Amino acid sequence: MSTAVSIAAGVALGTAAVAAFCDHRRGEIPNWLTLPPLVFAPLVYGLAFGLEHALQSWGAALLGGLVPYFLFRRSAMGGGDVKLFASLGAIMGFDLLAGVEIQLWAFAFAMLGAGAALAWRGRLLATLGNALAAGLEPLLPRRFHRDPSAELSTSIRMGGSILAATSVFAAPHLLLVWSAP
Predict the structure, then answer these.
(1) Could you tell me if 86 and 61 are in contact, meaning their C-beta atoms sit under 8 angstroms apart?
(2) What's the rounded Cα separation, in Å, for the pair 66 and 62?
(3) Which residues are CB-contacts of 9 (< 8 A; sequence separation ≥ 6)?
(4) Which of 16, 39, 78, 118 has CB 3.0 to 4.6 Å from 166, enough for a Cys bridge?
């Protein structure tokens, strides 16, 4: 199964790379990239390894897309990102929590990138202060409430962060194949 895992890691990495390119160029991740893995990955796992692996791939897709879907419903994330996370979960379906791990790494990379961009513009400390004020707002009297700054609602393209996260997750699986005698 180690060869199958490496193939899945390579496919996931390729999918994330194309998604990052499309996201960078057009600001959207296309359906032709994200929807086929949701159908074909469980099918391939089922044909190659049995029904249990097919169901595990579907479960990984569901877990990978669950939190992003809730963020999408709150207008905090794009639909393409949600489908990409679910697709990566399905592709990496040999591990039920693979999509969740990629998701956590992607959010960490996005946070670091946003912090670096704010620091470059000289707005990091002001934005952190506004975020702290927004977090404490329910505890403070109304006279201390203030309007949030634009940085708290600026959109971030996640494609590059998802590619970096997929690379971190897939690299050990790919390196194992290349280092095997």
Answers:
(1) yes
(2) 6
(3) 92, 169, 170, 173, 174
(4) 16
